[in-house]
Amino acid sequence: MDLGIKGRAAIVTGASRGIGRETARQFLEEGVRVMICGRNAETLEKTRAELAKQTGGEVHAVVADMTIEADIAKLVAAAQQKFGTVDILINNAGQMYSGRFAAMTDAGLKEQFETKIFGFLRAIRLVYPIMKAQKWGRIINIIGGAGKEPDPYMFGSGITNSGLLNITKSLSTEFGEDNVLVNAICPGWVATNLWERNAEGLKADLQVKTEEEARRLAARKNSLNRFGKPEELANAIVFLCSERSSYITGVSLNLDGGRLKGLW
Ligand SMILES: NC(=O)c1ccc[n+]([C@@H]2O[C@H](COP(=O)([O-])OP(=O)(O)OC[C@H]3O[C@@H](n4cnc5c(N)ncnc54)[C@H](OP(=O)(O)O)[C@@H]3O)[C@@H](O)[C@H]2O)c1
What we know:
seven-stranded parallel β-sheet, 7 strands, 48% helix, binds NADP nicotinamide-adenine-dinucleotide phosphate
C-alpha cells in the first residue's frame, strides 16, 4: 500500500532507541524526511548515522531534552530550517514512572509531568500553527495503557497518561477543521531498553526472583502472551500519519497484544 507521505517532514522525539528509533526508520523507508532528538549526543548521532545508512533517507538529529522549553524550540526550529515545514509530530520521548503510591515522590511526579505533559504540549504548541497554515498535519502522542486501566505499580505513569488521553481527544476536536489529526498510541509492554530499566522494580513488585519470571508474568496478561516489538508499534504509528488515515482523529489505539480488557 502506498502510504502517500513521501517527501513529508516529521519530527520524532526520543528516537535514539526503542519505539522512536523504529518509527523514524519506517518513516525513512516511506521517503519521509525525519528530524530525531534525544539527550545523549553520542547515542543520537550513532543512531542518525545508522538510520541514514540503512535507509538512504534524509535524517537529521538535534540534541534536545524535551523537559526543557528552549530545547523544544531549538528542535522545531531546526526541522523548519531543514525541511521548510513540519507535517508530522511524534511525541514519543519519555520514561515510565513506575512504582506504587508509597514510592512516589513529588520530584519524580514533577519530572513525569515535565516530560509527558509539558514536553508533549509545548511541542504541539509550536508545530500546530505550521500545520494549520498548510491545512495538513499529523500529531501522535505515545501514551501507555495505565492511562485507561489504572495499575497500582504504574501509579505515576497512569496520572499523566490519563491527562494525555484527554489532551489527545480535546485537541483532535479543536484542530479538526484545520485537517490536523491528533491520535494516540497506548503501548503495553514493549521489548525496549525501557523494559530493561524497569525489570528490577517489576521483579520486586511481582515477588519473583528472575527477570525471566517477571517478564513471563507481565506478558501473561496479554492475550498474545508476549511483549510487543518496537516495529509492531511503528507499523501503526506510521499508518496513522499517512494519507490512508485521513478520516481517523481522536483515537487512542491500544498496541498491547490484548492486555487491556476494557471496551476502549
Ligand atoms: N516500552 C514500553 O513497554 C512502553 C510502555 C508504555 C509506554 N511507553 C512509552 O513509549 C515511549 C518510548 O518508550 P521506549 O520503550 O521506546 O523507551 P526507550 O527505549 O527508553 O527510549 C526512549 C527514547 O527517548 C529518549 N528520551 C528519554 N527522555 C527524553 C527527554 N526528556 N528528552 C528527549 N529525549 C528523551 C531516549 O534517549 P536519551 O535517554 O538519550 O534522551 C530514547 O531515545 C515513552 O514515552 C514511553 O513512556 C513504552
